Amino acid sequence: MPLMKSWLESANAPDCPFPLNNLPYGVFSHDGGAPRCGVAIGDRILDVTALEASGHLSLADKPVLDRPEWNAVMALGPQAWQRLRTLLFGYLVEGTALKSQVADYLHPLAGATMHMPFAVAEFTDFYAGRHHATNVGTMFRGAENALPPNWLHIPIGYNGRASSVVVSGTDVRRPWGQLKAPDADVPHFAPCVRFDHELEMGAIIGRPSRPGHPVSVAEADSMIFGYVLLNDWSARDIQAWEYQPLGPFQAKATATTISPWIVTREALEPFRCMTPEREKPLLPYLQEPGPMLYDIELEVELTPKGGVPTTIARTNYREMYYSAAQQLAHHTTSGCPMRVGDLLGSGTISGQTRESRGSMLELSWGGKEPLTLPGGETRSFLEDHDRLTLRGQCRGDGYLIGFGECTGTVMPALTRPYGL
Ligand code: MN
Questions:
Q1: Cα–Cα distance, 261 to 108 (Å, whole number)
Q2: Is residue 416 classed exposed, middle or buried when 0-12, 13-18 and 19+ CB atoms within 10 A define those classes?
Q3: 84 lies in which domain range?
Q4: DSSP β-ladder status, 44-47 and 224-232
């Protein structure tokens, strides 16, 4: 599919992350005003809350954009999602006679404050990147036992916290927790020393499933409203001590940062690709009827306080072993109902090479091989005031589909967590 041209010239630049082909959904405010729903186009945000209020955008018999979240739009279902996209195309496409109806509702993207684009109902995080699981398993259990025996058969996950999902730009405070040195007899309580990022994609569920009714992979795919970049902040020393036998708990509850724009499944359609070849055949309920992954270039940038931004990893979402649709289908096998606004983390996305590892744990190989940054600083894990930024894009025929940045800065741990 080629670039679809808009009358807004900035949207037609080949390096613009938000051409007409994209139309991602976010929540923004400007000049201290109330947060409202917006659509990114070129270097502008279209205020669709105002557009609906003016009578120029009607999706249902009552307003759905009159609140600072996209959940009510999601709940209308795929026909309404398609209708919204068609209406937006109609207003923004080159040569339209409707230009004057929306021109007043476009605001500069630069300087806008972005908010959480949707209310997160529940958050589940998976462990579905094969290279990540192999790297971590090799470090903890040796190369022979790197992948647990279930890994090639089941998308491993855990139920996380929706309450600590935050939008890009939110500072993240280094947590305290129980830590135990390998040679110590007992744990102690102290600030996390091995604080880390995880490069992931988040899939947002836009259609619910019924209690007691598992969904197929094809149905699961149709339930996904869109995708965001996701940083699953992880306290590796807390995780190492607490994780057996029930998996991560406090190590991953501090914060999860997402990018501010929901890139829709429709915008990603031209970039679908197959999951890698299966080493072991999957059970029928996990088999995919078609390509369910996407070709999304991803990168991680680290900026020390006062230092130079440095790209520390480059990889691609197509490296995943399981797609979000497979994860979602698996999630419902128990009869667990999925809700509008549920968020699924893909699991850390690492490639085969050192340069493509999606966490500090892997990049520094458990702290044994620290990275040296251009300013001379070394890093095994994240230090206070480090800024971490994820970026992602699909490369189309003369255009890009961008996600916006997923950024967070590590703040020092509280000096006295209990006010003692
Ligand atoms: Mn994770």
A1: 15
A2: exposed
A3: 9-115
A4: unpaired
**C-alpha 348 – ligand 1 centre gap (Å):** 6
CA of 167 to the centre of ligand 1 (A): 17
176 lies in the same domain as 281: yes
Q: Is 79 exposed, middle or buried (0-12, 13-18, 19+ CB in 10 A)?
A: exposed
Give catalytic status of residue 56 as yes or no. Answer: no
Q: How far apart are CA 343 and CA 163, in angstroms?
A: 12
Q: Distance from the CA of 19 to the center of ligand 1, in angstroms?
A: 30
Q: Is 407 exposed, middle or buried (0-12, 13-18, 19+ CB in 10 A)?
A: buried
- 292 and 318 housed in the same domain: yes
Q: Looking at the structure, do residues 209 and 295 belong to the same domain, yes or no?
A: yes
CATH number, domain with residue 20: 2.30.30.230
71 and 154 fall within a common domain: no
Cα 203 to ligand 1 centre (Å): 13
Are 93 and 4 in contact by the 8 Å Cβ rule? The answer is: yes
- 242 CA to centre of ligand 1 in angstroms: 15
Q: What are phi and psi of 28, to 5 degrees?
A: -135, 165
Tens digit of pLDDT for each residue in 214-272? Answer: 999 999 999 999 999 999 999 999 999 999 899 999 999 999 999 999 999 999 999 99
- Catalytic residue chosen out of the listed positions 131, 132, 197, 331: 132
Residue 156 CA, ligand 1 centroid: distance in Å: 11
Please state the pTM of the whole predicted model.
0.97
Integer Cα distance of 329 and 403 in angstroms: 25
**Helix residue spans in 182-247 (DSSP H):** 217-223, 236-242
The percentage of residues in the chain with a pLDDT greater than 70, rounded to a whole number, is: 100
